[in-house]
Amino acid sequence: MAGSNEMTINLVILGGTQTGKSAAGNSLLGSSDFESHLSPSSVTTSCSLGRSCRISRIIRRNGCELAVRVRVLDTPSYPHSDLSKEQVRDMVRSALAHHFGEEGLHLALLVLRADLPVCPDENDHTIQFIQELLGPTWKHFTAVLFTHTDKTEEAGFSEEEYLHSASSTLLSLLSSVQHKYIFLDNQKSIIKEERAIILRKLLNFIRQNNYQVLQLQHSKK
Predict the structure, then answer these.
(1) Is Nucleotide-binding tagged as a keyword (predicted)?
(2) Distance CA 115, CA 34 (A)
(3) Rounded CA gap, 217 and 221, in Å?
(4) In a domain, 99, yes or no
(5) How far apart are the C-alpha atoms of 143 and 176, rounded to whole Å?
(6) DSSP helix/strand/coil, 161
(7) Helix (H) or strand (E) holding 172
């Protein structure tokens, strides 16, 4: 808590190349802090922290209205076009400890493209990577963020229909993170009201964790 009437939530964005991680981070912050554009190679090559302004009238806690500040750590993709798994893991681990080591991490957002299938091998590698970063309790502090949802909407899928048609691999992943997921169309600038809805969903996930944070001091090496 940043004060009696204000809360800061700490988020890290994880995912593969061209999934829309940086664009999603910008949507959550309501800014353009992170570089994001189409590229044949991985755009993000280092970790960077973005901070939102004070956001009012988002949630109430213990009968009081709380303002929210959002901090998002953008990270290089895994797999990465130029960096090894070990390089990405060590870079992210160091950044997590540096930025969130004292306050802790509220949620890791695993970014997946809604318009591409989730393959079993890729999914296994991604989960192993997150486990190495966050430790054995990763499931409690991870949510899935679907991007490029404009493509699924164009194909006529509602969120419910999309999940009903999802592969067993994706459904198993969602089950493992206790069905914490959000759909985000990060191909366009979201309006203030849409952003508030997304932040409320994230805060609901945090509330389900009883506002606990993942402590990251152990990551310092």
Answers:
(1) yes
(2) 23
(3) 9
(4) yes
(5) 10
(6) helix
(7) helix 168-176
Task: Judge whether 1 lies within some domain.
Answer: no
Say if 220 falls within a structural domain. Answer: no
Q: Which among 111, 112, 31, 123 is positioned nearest to 70, based on CA atoms?
A: 31
Which CATH number does the domain housing residue 117 bear? 3.40.50.300
pTM of this structure: 0.91
168 Cβ neighbours under 8 A, 6+ residues apart? none
Q: For helices 21-29 and 192-208, what crossing angle results, to 10°?
A: 100
Digit-coded pLDDT (tens) for 119-173: 899 889 999 999 999 999 999 999 999 998 988 888 899 999 999 999 999 999 9
> What pairing do the DSSP bridges indicate for beta strands 181-183 and 142-147?
parallel
The rounded distance, in Å, linking the Cα atoms of 215 and 26 is 25
| Angstrom distances, CA of residue 27 to CA of 96, 159, 170, 193, 216 | 21, 19, 24, 12, 25
pLDDT score at 92: 95
Give the model confidence (pLDDT) of 202-218 as tens digits: 999 999 999 999 998 64
Question: What's the gap between Cα 172 and its chain centre?
Answer: 18
Q: For residue 120, count CB atoms less than 10 angstroms from its CB and return exposed for 0-12, middle for 13-18, buried for 19 or more.
A: exposed
Please tell me whether the peptide bond between 79 and the residue prior to it is cis, using omega within 30 degrees of 0: yes
Range of the domain at 25: 6-209
β partners of residue 3: 6
Look at residue 37 and tell me whether its pLDDT is greater than 90. no
Domain-located, residue 218: no
